Amino acid sequence: MADAMRTVRYFWLSAAIGLLALFPFLANAADGEGMKDPTRPMVLDASAKPATEADADAVPAAVLQTVILRPGRKPAAMINGQMVELGGEIAGARVTAITDNQVVLTGLGGKEILKLNPSVEKRVLIEKTMAKKVGKPVVTRELKQ
């Protein structure tokens, strides 16, 4: 009898803890907005009003979100939430080059380079392996790109 009461008590305790764990999700669903998927691509809001008349004529800046390099297929890039392959067009510009961290767009305004992480600079270091084998200090030099 005591074991049956203990089992019922554990059941209700675990059910209460489960409901408490779901409460934040249920609260977000109740306000009508729900939870947003952080992995979805950014979508430009077409309903946003420009601040000035000059902003109304301006073309929105292209933003590189990801680069996909596929063996045996054309490389692709996600620009402003739209997938574009090498040679494809977006916002009146043709994609002329795709590398691991940038995309080159060519259009009427000339070339535009979109970088995946513009604030990160890639540097390659070369070690002299012979110095390492002999036991001397390792000398490194930086390659210019």
What does this structure look like?
With 145 residues, the protein is of the alpha+beta class. It is built from three helices and nine strands, in the order ααββββββββαβ. The chain has helices spanning 2-30, 53-57, 129-134; strands spanning 64-68, 76-79, 82-85, 89-90, 93-98, 102-107, 110-115, 125-127, 140-142. It starts with a helix and ends with a strand.
Could you give a short description of this structure?
With 145 residues, the chain is an alpha+beta fold. Among the domains are: 1-40; 55-115, SH3 type barrels (Roll).
Q: Write down the overall mean pLDDT.
A: 75
* Beta fraction: 25-35%
Globular, elongated, flat, extended or rod-shaped: what is the shape? elongated
- Percent range for helical residues? 25-40%
CATH class of one domain: Mainly Beta
Q: And the CATH topology of one domain? A: SH3 type barrels
- Residue ranges: pLDDT <50 for 5 or more in a row? none
Radius of gyration over all CA atoms, rounded: 27 Å
Structural class: alpha+beta
Number of helices: 3
Main sheet? 4 strands, antiparallel
Query: What is the second-level CATH architecture of one domain?
Result: Roll
Euclidean distance between termini CA atoms? 78 Å
- One letter per element, helices H and strands E, the order comes to HHEEEEEEEEHE
Order of strands, main sheet, comes to 4-5-6-7
Number of strands: 9
